[in-house]
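Final report, closing paragraph on structural work. Over the funding period we assembled a curated collection of sequence-structure pairs, and we close with a single example.
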Amino acid sequence: MNALALAALLAVPSSAAPAAPEFKIAKVFNAPVSEIKSLASLKGKVVYLEFWATWCGPCVAGIPRSNRIIEALKGEPFVFLAVTDEPADKIAAYMKTHEMKAWVGIDEAKSSVKAYKNLGRPDGYLIGKDGALLARIFPDHLQESEVRDAIAGRFAAKPVTFADEDGPEAARPKGKAFFELEVSSASGKGALTLGDDGIEGNGLPFAFMLSYIWNVEEEQFLINEKPVETFAFRLKTTRAGFEKGREALKLAVESALGFVVVPELKEADAYLLSLSTAPGASRPQAAEPGMKSRIMGSGAGRLFGKATMPGFAKALWGGARRPVIDDTGLTGEYFLDLEWKGNDAAALDRALAATGLRLVPARRQVEFLRVVPSKKN
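Its predicted structure, as stored:
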């Protein structure tokens, strides 16, 4: 049986779908209501419930796409509800500098998080006008056409399984887990979720999965032959243990999939991240001391956060489509907020110019990471 036929068998009519779990949202920004007392109060509207956070890079990078879907469905009985459990004052300040067209729900009591057994961000659920739980859809995969089908009542609902209903999951010890690591074959839709207790990836392209685990740009990997098209992993640990956990995850992935990652130095076309030489050019903004060091949205037409210049150069690699090497001579940490047309180096260069930076083409020795089969015993 092919995948399309299987999907058709699994799909069930909206009327047969279970009711979506109820929840309360104490405060809502960007909406005609100040709170949501129950999901039932939104009856008659299709709801897309997204779990997101300002610390979640994929969530932030996906905001422009969500805005486009919301704008395209303006006037329709549809609510895009982006829920976070972060403090209201933090989100209010964040929204002053980042356009969000969604209703933004503040759920510090974690009513919705608990109801949907949310383990990481981003995540999302499509809910019908009658309150039926239609599907679990990763935010980056949500299509305008799916929402329109739900509005018209013709969306074929798909079974939704929550974290504690997965069978093997339920059989696991219930004590507090300080460290868990698992690598397996992929199943279901591709997703990458991040939370306070770890990270989980499933079904995304092989090179993308490696780039996330190794914390480098996808283009830095040299892959002659992929051992698999994709895979799944789960790393559960404390935030304090995350970096050590990442090293363990690298070894586990290499061992499970039969390859090793070997550094390889080679000459390549690159860009030097340099200071502008234009008269009266501005200079990068020094970061405020209390700001947390973090870069979000790199390589997808959006980049912002606090980092050193070498850190920003590394993050710009994906957007420039070639290696970027810091040549500014600047020390300390800076704040950048850039937006450009994705995968357009000229547009990226124009965005950098406003901060007093520029990209200068050059040939340089660059470290790549080559994937090679591990030696058989």
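The longest strand covers residues 259-275. The radius of gyration is 22 Å. We thank the funder for supporting this effort.
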